[in-house]
TrEMBL record:
Residues 563-601 form the Flagellar basal-body/hook protein C-terminal domain. It is found in: Bacterial flagellum; Secreted. NCBIfam families: flgK_ends (TIGR02492). Residues 9-37 form the Flagellar basal body rod protein N-terminal domain. PANTHER family: FLAGELLAR HOOK-ASSOCIATED PROTEIN 1. Residues 102-261 form the Flagellar hook-associated protein FlgK helical domain. Belongs to the flagella basal body rod proteins family. Keywords: Bacterial flagellum, Cell projection, Cilium, Flagellum, Secreted. This is Flagellar hook-associated protein 1. Pfam families: Flg_bb_rod (PF00460), Flg_bbr_C (PF06429), FlgK_D1 (PF22638).
Amino acid sequence: MSGLFATFNIGKRGLFGQQRAIDVTSHNIANANTEGYSRQRAVLETTRPFGMPSMDNQVGPGQVGTGVGVSTIQRVRDSFMDFQVRREKSTLAQYEARDKYLSEIESIFNEPSDNGLSTLIGKFFNSWDQLSKQAESSNARTVVAQQSAALADELNHTYNQLMEIKENTHDSIKQSVFDLNGMLDRLDKLNQQIMSVKVSGMEPNDLMDKRDLLLDQLSEKFNIEVKKDKFYSVNVGPEDESGLNPNVNSLLIRKNPNDAVRRFSYVSGIAKTTTPGSRANTLQYKVTYLKNGDKDKTETITVEMTEDEYKQLDQCRVIWAQNDKNDDDANGRALDKNGAAIAKETTIDFENLAMFSLPKDENRGELKGYMSVQKDVDKYIDQLNKLAKGLVFSVNAVHSGKEDSSADTMPFFVNKDAAQYTDGVLNNLGDTLNKEVEITAGNISVNMEIIKDVMKIKAGTTGNPDVDGENDGKRALAIAQLRGTLLKIQDIDNSTDRVGFIGTLAVDSSLGVATVKSDINGMKIDNYFKDTIDKLGIQEQEARRVVRNQEVLLQGFQERRDSISGVSLDEEMANLVQFQHAYQANAKIISTVDELLDVVVNGLKR
């Protein structure tokens, strides 16, 4: 085809091509501030030309072009920059979660301050030192009782606040699991829509932008691996070891079949029973979980665990779940490590439970941050319990002169959960002494008998005022000197009792009072607590430092990605002027051809 009509068609194609380019430019400008939007460009290509053979089949001067067409509307995106941004988002989210809760723990300990535990420990020992100088004074005894009660109350308060931090992190994990499953469902729908559009021959640019934005948000939860598949689809799963056996499908999003994927459920409760498990040192625990994190859908299984395994599940709280949209009862059900669904009311060994554990240092993300904070809180609670136990065992032993708690007749500190009083008198001494081994920072208390009658405090050499005399304060001084005694507090565990901690009391020759011997491998009570605070300070400083560094690093990566994918209004305006002039020029060609056709058609009549 040649002639004026061919030129007319070339102008028309040019007009349509520039119009489409203007449309794309307009779309870019409209979405200049849209989060996750990637700029687009119309790729213009010459349309298929045709030859001009002569009537005698000789070759003509060559092919004549037929104009321009838009081959595709291309999305400008750099996959490698996406990978870098998502990787750094995971790290930032992890340390933001740690920084948030570690700063709260710092506020709970409130150190150094005039009202912190270290100050109260100092005041506690100072009050005993003052009593040793004024053994006859009821005021000095009252100060000892009240300072001891203040120390016990602060230990109780700190313990309860730390337990509340654990509850808060549980809530954060639960919300993350719920949000996570919602993101995965939306990603799956977008993945299927993108494939449908691509199969139809069109470019699903805006849909892919939405999917990439969701992938960015998903990467904040944990580090993900995104693999591209046919028709612009993606397969998504955890990047590192995740709790399922290596050969088991751990994909969360996949091209086909899209229902053969996994989800997550949240463990809402772990109740200990007295039934032993099949393995040594295990007990059965009733584990209740929210299917897919939904609080209205719960299920219970029995898991056989050791004490350490219980801690692992308590700190993690996330388990792999079945994804079955066709069966609401099975959807969200817990999986074993081989990927098989665990039926309700079933007993399973912890070693076979598919827990979404993130133990490796390579693991990152918000969930890893929350899980690591729970582990830290457990350590601080454990150290606080050791401090409380060490204080109780040593003070009670010197106060009574007995390393065996069962021989004590007037314990200074007691387990308030076990102690029972009638008219201010302890009426279950034997049971209270037996429960001394279960004392924690949460239940330590001063014996109410001593609070009611401070004259029952044993300050003299024998502990009997009639024998010691009113000015004998040697036992009180021996308790005050515990402040400088090296004790193996770090070795205390749940089964440690008074005699196991102290060994045999030794008589101090200068005082004539049985007291606790220093252990060269031990540490002072106040120094042990200060070490705990120092570790907390270092952890919080590290979290805050990493957050600041990651924010700068992530900002740099995002700016580089935006320089490629982001919309530059200056560039778009320049393009708009260019396409406008080209549009006008093509319109001029059509106008010129129209005049020429008028000459040919109407001029031939004359």
